[in-house]
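User: Structure please.
Assistant: Input sequence and predicted structure:
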Amino acid sequence: MRILVTGGTGQLGSEWVRFLNKKEVEFISLPPSDFDLTDHQDVRRVLNNLKPGYIINCAAYTNVDQAEVEKEEAFAVNYEGVQNLANYSAESGVKLIEFSTDYVFPGKEKDQKKLPNGYPEDYPTDPINTYGASKLAGENAIKDSGCDYIICRTSWLCGKYGNNFVKTMLRLGEERKELNVVNDQYGCPTFTANLVKNCWNLVEEKKSGIYHITSHGKITWFEFAKEIFRQTGMQVQVNGVSSSEFPTKATRPAFSLLSTKKIANIPGATLIEWQEGLKQLLGELDT
């Protein structure tokens, strides 16, 4: 079973490399510079040479605000690139593992009341920014291709590698004694180590389809920041503020909690409370 990890140098790709290094499986990790995901012929050239049995696609355009300016670039990677992988997978009998986002949903504040446990996998999608629209287009390309796939939707991704909210707070906490953090956007963090573990479990259980994988809980970014400083013992005053105080190019969802009921029913699933996930991540960042 040869596994290909695309985008292997990013936050999620690096986590997969670390995980697979501990497994007795053959895998190849390719950084984005090794082939052009958006080039149909280049994708086929590389994949025909490597002949993977599984493709774990961690390559993505993830700059949410810049996507509003670079719409073509975002869709080229998140839609056309994914479509190239999906079409190859369908023709070659390869299983494709793709990662998507809470941003495919409308994210309306009123959804909190009717969806107290978060958006289920089959809830109607309606992205409110270009990034979400490009990721949804990639999801649809996979489904339309007819390939065997797993799509894991996540939210608020944080891990040992790359840039993320936890690392940003730790850096700012060293520089300042007081921080303003948005307190009107609700969701839940996903920690890369737990995401990879649960996604691999889906592979081993021979599952297919769309699954939501996050930790347990519902919080705001303000509450997340406060817990980061509480667990690290950093003396930082955190003030909860409105999103209007931090205008961004891309509209952000007021509510983007994902329901994990479906994944929780899979044998071997190991979902964790968000505070525990944060504790584990902070321990890794200390080493």
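DSSP finds ten helices and twelve strands in the chain.
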